[in-house]
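Action item from last week, closing it out:
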Amino acid sequence: MALLRTVAIFMVVILAMVLLIPMGVLAFIPSLVGFKKLMALCIYRIAQGWARMLIRITGCRLTVLGRENIPRTGGVCFVSNHGSIFDILLHLAYVGRPFGFVAKKELVFVPMLNIWIFLLGGLFIDRKNVRKAIKTINRGIEHIKAGGAMIIFPEGHRSRGQGLLPFHPGSLKLATQAGAPIIPSGIAGSYEVFEKTGRIQAVPVKLVYEKPINTADLPHEEKKQILADRIRGVIAEALL
């Protein structure tokens, strides 16, 4: 059964990316002439349906908590732990509103995936070039200030079953410099879905969205390590 699910997932991923790209591109074009928010929602709904379909195929026993804590409008930054490639699918399926995210620049060269990252509002970051990285972060800040949503993974890379890794305080600049609320998000069990064994496993997975943390009125000294430690603590509790 695990092998069949794995084959099915890969077939659906490839076919969906190929077949849905034209729809995503057609939805993106009107955004160039004044319908940016409406088209962003259309593109997100396409991706949301795709993500939910893939999650159902995996057979994972998913529990989602705290969606009532997600604001429907206004700038917001989701801060999530990152154990697996499955995490983005979970957020696409259940955040309920369009969002962007920061992806490593190497993904620019992955066919089809690069187009979907762009259509969804993802930003490619070059961590080896400080000047370019700052420009990318500033674009994310402006997106949040304009009322958009972003998701960041402050561990810096996938933990791959190592538990919750230390947070990089600088990664919270998207939220703190935009003065936006932060929604801590915890994901447990996503690594076991595929990456642990290389085959799709129908395992329990938990996704939790905690109550917003307001950053606009935080003292300056709390906007770095103290805030990172506070958010990490909230996510650690959500994973229990």
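Closing note: The longest strand covers residues 182-188.
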